[in-house]
Amino acid sequence: MPIFVTPFAQLDLIRQPEQQAEPLQAFDAADEYLLAHLHEQGLASSERVLVLNDSFGALAASLAGHARVTSSGDSHLGHLGLEVNLARNHLAAESVRFVPASETPVGPFDWVLIRIPKTLALLEEQLIRLHGQLAPGARVVAAAMVKHLPRAAGDLLEQYIGPVQASLAVKKARLLLATPEQKAAPASPYPSRYRLEQPPLELVNHANVFCREGLDIGTRAFLPHLPKHLGRIRVADLGCGNGVLGIAYALGSPLAELTLVDESYMAVQSARENWRAALGERPVDIRAGDGLAEQPADSLDLVLCNPPFHQQQVVGDFLAWRMFQQARTALVKGGELWIVGNRHLGYHAKLKRLFRGVEQVAATPKFVVLKAIK
């Protein structure tokens, strides 16, 4: 893999989760541009830097030891990437403080470096939370590859921070430089809520939750076909989002022991709040994680999954395939993986390579619900 070379450091960086012959880098030209600008402006070791949405730690690891660095983002895999890359480059773990996006980083910060996230609602919530956290004379700089930079990102910076100046493009990357102004404390529109008729639920969705404004059509196709078990069965909702599949299953299976896992901290926060509202103090394990990587082998009877088809801006079935492999390892012999997926993704054939039996439970014109038996 190429070395990430900036005025602050030369780093050997890898993405998470690791895959053999990784075709993608753990950094891009927008990271390089942002760090070059910071170096040009001058950075004192006493200054406090907040890094938002650093994909795999390229920015925070570069600045470790050069300033007092806090990194915040919504991706558990991004957090894992930061930890792995600090260790890989012999940098102290405590040289960067990490704050999940479900919490507010506490300033005052002299610099805020932002990678524009795919979900602009996450950016908006992060900018809202910066109110009262900026030091006098603080500078806020956002970066993105031009192809991933919507006009609305600049509008949000202007609305919540102050006037914005766009840089020239360099290697197809651009910076947005915002000058902080005194503004009234903003009210956040997040979390949002929507209601389901069946099962009757009101669901809370924090800013970065997938399909925040309403139930996604894949889950809508899955819900009527969820299995029901009356016994003490061990079940995981893998990639749980706001928790709707796990909660709906739990409502129909009163003795089941549930684990809900997602790599988004805001999804986990939403799922916890939704579980409590629907099921009170019923025991549950809801956690941020790298799928079922930490789940003991042969420890589950059933896995429910509506797999993602992208990681940040990268589209593909790598994460879904990995989730299927994790599910197979975590399931007991005879255990079942139930998934919903777009017909065109061909999950039926992929599951047959891992499981001894695969059958179609239901179908709509766009989606299939599949059951795979270990």
Automatic annotation (TrEMBL):
<dbReference type="Pfam" id="PF05175">
    <property type="entry name" value="MTS"/>
</dbReference>
<dbReference type="GO" id="GO:0032259">
    <property type="term" value="P:methylation"/>
</dbReference>
<dbReference type="InterPro" id="IPR007848">
    <property type="entry name" value="Small_mtfrase_dom"/>
</dbReference>
<dbReference type="InterPro" id="IPR017237">
    <property type="entry name" value="RLMG"/>
</dbReference>
<protein>
    <recommendedName>
        <fullName>Ribosomal RNA large subunit methyltransferase G</fullName>
        <ecNumber>2.1.1.174</ecNumber>
    </recommendedName>
</protein>
<feature type="domain" description="RlmG N-terminal">
    <location>
        <begin position="2"/>
        <end position="181"/>
    </location>
</feature>
<dbReference type="Pfam" id="PF26049">
    <property type="entry name" value="RLMG_N"/>
</dbReference>
<dbReference type="InterPro" id="IPR058679">
    <property type="entry name" value="RlmG_N"/>
</dbReference>
<dbReference type="InterPro" id="IPR029063">
    <property type="entry name" value="SAM-dependent_MTases_sf"/>
</dbReference>
<dbReference type="GO" id="GO:0008168">
    <property type="term" value="F:methyltransferase activity"/>
</dbReference>
<keyword id="KW-0949">S-adenosyl-L-methionine</keyword>
<keyword id="KW-0698">rRNA processing</keyword>
<comment type="similarity">
    <text>Belongs to the methyltransferase superfamily. RlmG family.</text>
</comment>
<feature type="domain" description="Methyltransferase small">
    <location>
        <begin position="201"/>
        <end position="371"/>
    </location>
</feature>
<keyword id="KW-0808">Transferase</keyword>
<dbReference type="InterPro" id="IPR046977">
    <property type="entry name" value="RsmC/RlmG"/>
</dbReference>
<dbReference type="InterPro" id="IPR002052">
    <property type="entry name" value="DNA_methylase_N6_adenine_CS"/>
</dbReference>
<keyword id="KW-0963">Cytoplasm</keyword>
<keyword id="KW-0489">Methyltransferase</keyword>
<comment type="function">
    <text>Specifically methylates the guanine in position 1835 (m2G1835) of 23S rRNA.</text>
</comment>
